[in-house]
């Protein structure tokens, strides 16, 4: 259940269309604490984490948005 506590504000790093939209979100979370399949609220909409990683500039995770 969403508690209403905002713990970070992410940044959209990339949007890719391959049927559905895939968003790569940059964040300040400790990426090892995010499990694949986790549900993260984005402006009240819960989206499932399907990939994650660390680049030189960002911690990031990917979610898919569909109609």
Q: How many strand segments?
A: 5
Strands ordered across the widest β-sheet: 1-2-5-4-3
Given this structure, which CATH class is correct? Mainly Beta
Poorly predicted sequence stretches spanning 5 or more consecutive residues: none
SS-derived structural category: mainly beta
Distance between the termini: 23 Å
Nearest-integer average pLDDT:
89
Shape estimate: globular
What string gives the helices and strands in order?
EEEEE
Fraction of residues in H or I helices? under 10%
How many structural domains does the protein architecture include?
1
Largest sheet: number of strands, sense, barrel closure: 5 strands, antiparallel
Rg estimate, integer Å = 12 Å
Concise overview:
The protein has no helices and five strands. The protein is mostly beta strands and 67 residues long. The protein has a single domain, classed as Elongation Factor Tu (Ef-tu), domain 3.
